[in-house]
Amino acid sequence: MSDLIRTCGSCTLCCKLFPVPDLGKPAGTWCRHIAQGRGCGIHATRPDLCRAFWCQWIENPDLGPEWKPEKAKFVLSIYPGSQSLAVTVDPAYPASWRGDAYLPSLRRWARAAMEDKEFVIVFVGDDATIILPEGEKPLGRLGPGDKIVGLRRGNAFDVAVRRA
Ligand code: SF4
Ligand code: SF4
To answer: Of 50, 55, 75, which is best to mutate to test ligand 2, by the most ligand atoms within 8 angstroms of its C-beta?
Structure first.
């Protein structure tokens, strides 16, 4: 925390997009404790999950102001159990990640990730889409234990899902 160079300021988007089981809060709806534009209304006693989370905009100083979640309308984070990048999109702006300010970078990162058997995964609600260096692949809902597998044919990348 002390190493972080940024603060959330008026952004609260992760408090909408992610579930908080301790509060019975589902994904995609505002937490009842949000104080809009000011952050968490129960900051001192917020759940551990909330304390532990920092999005990539907070953690990665290379991301410019256009990537701040309240502006981008999506949150970048590391997909649990991997080094893949999750792009969790505000369902009120489902195409936000396709903007010219974002998609070229996402494709570039996707190529680098796939070279390392990792991925850039867009989530709009329950629907997952893998960004490919050239194109994208809708995967639908990913269940627990489902595994994304990268495929490479020459310079072309593709993915498949091994369902649990
Ligand atoms: S999405 Fe990132 S910048 Fe916005 S409130 Fe959450 S941690 Fe802070
Ligand atoms: S408890 Fe606070 S930090 Fe956690 S989701 Fe709700 S408003 Fe956000």
So the answer is: 50
Q: Where are the domains of the chain?
A: 1-54, 73-162
Q: How far is the CA of 89 from the centre of ligand 1 (A)?
A: 13
Instruction: Give the CA distances from residue 33 to residues 12, 23, 53, 90, 99, in Å, rounded to whole numbers and listed in that order.
Output: 11, 10, 16, 18, 31
pLDDT range class, residue 144, cuts 50, 70, 90: confident
What residues contact 153, with CB distance under 8 A and at least 6 apart? none
**Residues in contact with 128: Cβ distance below 8 Å, sequence separation at least 6, in sequence order:** 121, 122, 138, 139, 140, 141, 142
Q: What is the pLDDT of residues 86-120, one digit of tens each?
A: 999 999 999 999 999 999 999 999 999 999 999 99
